[in-house]
Design brief:
This protein has 194 residues and is an all-alpha fold. The chain contains six helices and no strands. Helix 2 runs antiparallel to helix 5, helix 4 packs antiparallel against helix 5 and helix 5 runs antiparallel to helix 6.
Length: 194
Amino acid sequence: MKFLDTLRHYIQVSGVGPISRRYFIMNAFDGATTVLGVVAGAYAAGITNDSWVILSALGATIAMGMSGFAGSFMAEEAESAKKLNTLEKMMLTELKDSVVGKANRFASIWAALIGGGAPALTGATCLLPFLCSSHGIISVSLAIQISIGVALTIMFLLGAVLGKISSRNIVIHGAKMLAVGVLLTLIFFTLKLT
């Protein structure tokens, strides 16, 4: 419990809470959208091989996870260093080994874990139906339908969370995020028809 208390304290001191929420929503949305694009694209191309969809979407998910981790870490590390330098100049003392210094270092790692973990989590969730199809539990066609449904549901829920955070209408915010996924799906379905 002491470890968790320390984490909570570092989150509070560094102020990384709102930043990590933004990273989570943005990158989770990217993960769901990318896998939705891969799945809908596979449908439009008439691909019936589930391993192709799994490997393509998994590759994109891993790349997004690594990109989110590295990008979030470097951005937050630079912001933390700037904040700490400013504070040190104001206080005329070095704060590297203080609670503030440790909290700022923790904030960079925390933001990186959230930034990289969010797209990996949502991308992998959208791929679960294809794991079932690869084991013969469901057909590839059903896996495509379920995967698209899962991705659209995740998008709606992410929008609803934004509505909750901003104390606005969660249904409207959910619908806004959902609209992006529906538009993307319609584009690929139109390509299938032409």
